Amino acid sequence: MTRSALVAAGLVVMLLAPSALSGPVGPVRGGTLTIARPVDAVSLDPHFETTAPGAWIYQMILEPLLVLGPDMKIQPRLATAWRVMSSSRIRFTLRRDVKFHDGTPFNAQAVKFTFDRAFDPRSPGRWASLAGPIKGAEVVDDYTVDIVTNEPYAPLLYSVAMLYAGIVSPTAVQRMGAEFSRRPVGTGPFKFEEWRTNDRITITRNDDYWGPKAYLDRIVFRVIPEESARMIALRTGEADMVLVPAPAQLAAFARDPAFRVAQATGLRVVFTGMNLTRPPLSDVRVRRALFMAANRQSILQNILEGAAGPADGILAPGVFGYKPMGLDRLYPYNPQRARQLLLEAGFRPGPDGIMQREGIPLVLSILSARGRYFKDAEITEAYQAQLREIGVRLDVQFLEWATVFTNVRAATLDYHLFTLGWVTTTADADYSMLPLFRSDQAPPRGWNTWRYVNPEFDRLVDAARTSLAPREREDLYGRAQDLIARDIMFIPWYTTREIAVMRANVNGFVPHPIEYNQGFSHVWIQR
Amino acid sequence: MQEETGRLPVAYRSTGAALWRRFRRNRLALAGLLIVALLACAAMLAPALAPADPARQSLEDKRMPPGGKYLLGADEFGRDIASRLIYGSRIALMVGLVSVLFAAVLGTALGTVAGYVGGAVDEALMRTLDVLLAFPYLLLAIAIVSALGPGLQNTILAVGVWATPGFARVIRGSVLAIKEQEYVQAARAAGAGTGRVVVRHVLPNCISILIVYSALYMASAILLEAALSFLGLGVQPPTPSWGLMVSTGRDFITLAPHIATLPGLAIAVTVLGFNLLGDGLRDALDPKMPA
Q: Does A370 touch chain B (CB under 8 A)?
C-alpha cells in the first residue's frame, strides 16, 4: 500500500468515525441551523407575498387552520376538526390552548380578522386571488368558525390549508400597521427575530408553542446569490443547508458522507411565458415558432443535469386535473419548421440574419431573474442562442427578483417574454388554471401574465370550479388544457425536484413537494 | 529654412526620437507596448482570428476542457472560449478607450477652467469633483449603472464619470504651474487673449501628462468594466465580456476551472500591459529623467 493510499484510507476512517461510533441517537434540542438560499423575501406577510422566498419563512411563524403534509394529505393545525355544512360552507372547530407570539389569545375572532383582512374588496390580500371564491369567515362561537364561499367550491379545504391562509395576530396587525409585513406575529413554532434586507432573516423557537416544540433554537436564512458561493459556504460550515444547489455538484455531494442530499418530486413548473398583448406575439404562428425553436430536451439534459424532470404543460404531474399536453408531439424542436412559421407570418430574413417584417426586426425583450428558480438565467441564455438560430434576437435583462416580481404584478407588462415558475400550492388544478388563464385575471388582480382571453376557456374553468364531481372536473380541466396547448403562450422547461443539500449532522428534514411547505419543527442538529 | 537644410529643427527631432530612445531602454515598457499592440490586433481582427462564433452554443459540449475540439475549451453553454476571449477584447478596449476619451476631454476642460480661472470657480469645481472622488470607485459606478440600467453605453458612461475627476485634478495642477511660466506671461504681455493662451501655450504642455494618465486609466477602466460585468451590471449576454465570463464560470470553478480562470488571466494580462505602458511613458516623458 502506498503512502498516499494510507493517508486516504485514514481520512475515510476519520470521516466515518463519528457516525460509526455514536450509533443512532435521539433528537437533541438546541443549535442554530443556517440555510443558504439565492434570494431574499419580498415580504413576510401573505397579504403582500405569495412566492416562495417569503413563504419559506412565514409558514413557520403563521399557521393556517389546516396544512398539507408531505404526502399532500390534509392535516389539522389550528383547527381540530371540520365538518362540511353545505357545498359552500365548512365549519371548523378551533384549538383552545393557543396564543399568538405577542400574547394575544387565538380564537374565532382572529380567524375572522385574518379572512376579513385578506378578502377586503378595497385592498384584497395577494393570496385572495389564489383562494377561490371565498367570501369570508363567520364566527359561530369563540372556538367555532365557518368559512363560506360565494358558490360551491370543491377544493375549499385545500384553500384553507394553503400556508398563505396563516392566521395573523389581530392586535399585532392593528398596532404595527405596514411594519407587520416585515415582522409578522403568528402562532407558529418559530418567532420572528430579525430581517436584514438582502442579508439574512432570523427566526427563533417559540417556547410557548401549543404543540411539540421545535428542536432548533434558531434558524438563519442567509441570502447568497451565487450558486458556487452557496456550495462553498456549505463546505466550510458557514451554512448547514443549501437551497437551489448547483446541479453539477450534486453527484459529488451525494457521494460525500459528510453531506446529505434530500429531494422530493416538486409541483412547480418553470417556464418562459409570452405576452400576448405585444405584437408579434399576438400571432399564434409566431408563438409556435418560438416554441419549436426551443431545444427543451437539450436544456434539461445539459443545464439542469438531472436536477429537474420534464414538463408537459403548466401543471406538474401529481396535480389533480393534470393532463399531459403532448407538447413534444404538437411542437417538436424543429428550427426549420420554426423559420417556416415565421415566413408564413410575413417575416423575411434581414441583412444581419435577423427576421424582419415591414422593416421592423424581430427583436424580443425578456424579463428574467438570476437564481430565483433553478438555472433560470442559464435557461434564458440558452434559449437566447436557440432563438438566434431561427433569426430572432432576444434582448436579455437579468433583474433582481423583487424587481421582476414588481414587473410581473403590474397592470402592464413591457416585456415580450418572461421566465417564471408556478407551483400548484393546493395540488388542485383550480389553483393554477383559473388565476393563470381566466380572462379577468390579468395582473394586478390575478396571474394571467400573458393576458390570455378566451371565453370558451373561461366557461370550462368556471364549470370545473363549481362542480363537485371529480370525474367531471378532471374532464373539464383536460379540455381547458387542450385549449391552452392549441393557443400556446408558454414554453415549459422543467418540473422541479425540490433538492436541499445539508451537512450530515442535520437530521429530520423531510422535503415537501411544495418547496416552501417545509416543516422545521422536527429538524435537529447532532453535535 | 527647413526646406533648405532638409532637416527638422533640433528641438522637434529630439522630442520624438529621444522619447522613443528612453522608452526603448525600458524592457518592461516594451513588454507593455507589445501586450497592448497584440490586444489591439485581436480586437480589430476578431472576426478573422476567432475560430468560431462567440455566441454559438453547443450545449452537449458544455465545460469541455482545453485542447481537443476547442483550443481553450468550452464554457458552460458549450461556447468556444478562445473566440469569446478574442471578441471580449473588443468590449474591454472599447469601454476603456471611449470612457477614457470621455473622461480626458471632460476632465481636461474642467481642470483647465478651474486651474486657469482660479478663485471661486476653481473652488466650486474642485469641491464638486472632490465629492465624486470621495465615493469608493466601484460604488459610484454601481450607483450610475443602477440608475440608468445595465448595458454597454451605460457602462461606458459610468466608467467615464468615474475617471473624470482624476483627469480634472491632474490637468488643473499642470495648468496652475504652466500659467506662471515666463512664456505664458510673455504671450499675455504680447496681447494674446485667454483663448489663444490656453489653446496655444497651456494645453500643448499638458499633452504628455494626458497621455501618461490615459494609459494608466485605461488599465483601471478595463478593470472597472470587468468588475461591473462580473456583478451583472455591465454588458448583457450573449455579448462576451471577460468579467461576465469569470462571473458565470465561477459556478464551475471546481469542475471546470478553465471557464473562469482564462478570462481572469486575460483581464490580468491586459491591465498589466496598460500599466507597464503607462509607467514606461511616464518615465520616458519626464524631462527630469536623464536622456
A: yes
Q: Which pLDDT value is given to residue B194? A: 87
* Cross-chain residue pair B77–A382, CB shorter than 8 Å: yes
Pairing of strands A308-309, A79-86: unpaired
- The answer, for A397 touching chain B at a CB cutoff of 8 Å, is yes
pTM of the model: 0.80
d(C-alpha A145, C-alpha A107), whole Å: 9
Are the CB atoms for A167 and A62 separated by under 8 Å? yes
What are the cell numbers at B130?
Answer: 472632490
Q: Which of residues 335-364 of A touch B (CB under 8 A)?
A: none
Which of A227, A302, A396 is closest, CB to CB, to B237? Answer: A396
Q: Thinking of the domain A62-172, which architecture would CATH place it in?
A: Alpha-Beta Complex (3.90)
Instruction: List pLDDT tens digits, range B29-62.
Output: 999 999 999 999 999 999 999 999 998 999 999 9
CA A476 from centroid of its chain's CA atoms: 25
Among A115, A96, A81, A93, which Cα is nearest to A187's? Answer: A96
Nearest CB partner across the interface for B251, out of A228, A386, A398: A228
Which residues have a Cβ under 8 Å from the Cβ of A254 and sit 6 or more positions away? A261
**A21-29 own/partner pairs: CB under 8 Å, 24+ apart:** A22/A526, A25/A526, A27/A215, A27/A507, A27/A508, A27/A522, A27/A524, A28/A215, A28/A524, A28/A525, A28/A526, A28/A527, A29/A215, A29/A217, A29/A524
Q: Which range (A107-111, A131-135, A170-174) has the least confidence?
A: A131-135
Nearest-CB residue to A248 (from B78, B236, B252): B252
By DSSP bridging, strand A200-205 and strand A417-423 are unpaired
pLDDT band at A25 (very low <50, low <70, confident <90, very high): low
| CB interface of A with B, residues 461-480, below 8 Å | none
Q: What is the pLDDT of residue B16?
A: 75
CB A333 within 8 A of CB A276: no
pLDDT for the residue A24: 54
Architecture in CATH for domain A267-496: Roll (3.10)
Please report, for chain A, the start and end positions of each structural domain, with discontinuous segments joined by +. 62-172, 267-496
A468 DSSP assignment: -
Rounded Cα distance, A136 and B103, in Å? 63
Q: Which candidate in A234, A394, A397 is best for mutational testing of the B interface (most B CBs within 10 A)?
A: A397
**Burial label, A479 (beta-carbon count in 10 A; 0-12, 13-18, 19+):** middle
Give dist(CA A509, CA A240) in Å, integer. Answer: 12
- Which CATH number fits the domain B31-44+80-284, given the four candidates 3.40.190.10, 3.90.640.20, 1.10.3720.10, 2.40.10.10? 1.10.3720.10
Shortest Cα distance, chain B CAs vs residue A228, angstroms: 5
Report the DSSP beta bridge partners of residue A363. Answer: A393
CA gyration radius, chain A: 24
Query: Nearest to residue A443, comparing CAs of A126, A55, A46, A133?
Result: A126
pLDDT given at position B262: 96
Residue type (1 letter), A160: V
Residue of A nearest to B251 (CA): A228
* Residue ranges of A 141-170 with Cβ closer than 8 A to chain B: none
Identity at A475, one-letter amino acid code:
D
- Interchain proximity B59–A382, CB inside 8 Å: yes
Spatial distance between the Cα atoms of A417 and B219, rounded to a whole number of angstroms: 38
Residues of chain B numbered 237-256 and touching chain A (CB < 8 Å): 237-238, 250-255
Q: Least CB-CB distance to A298: which of B55, B60, B149?
A: B60
| Residues forming beta bridges with residue A134, ordered by sequence position | A149
Instruction: Provide the 10 A C-beta neighbour count for residue A18.
Output: 12
ipTM confidence score: 0.74
In total, the C-beta contacts within 8 angstroms joining chain A to chain B are 54
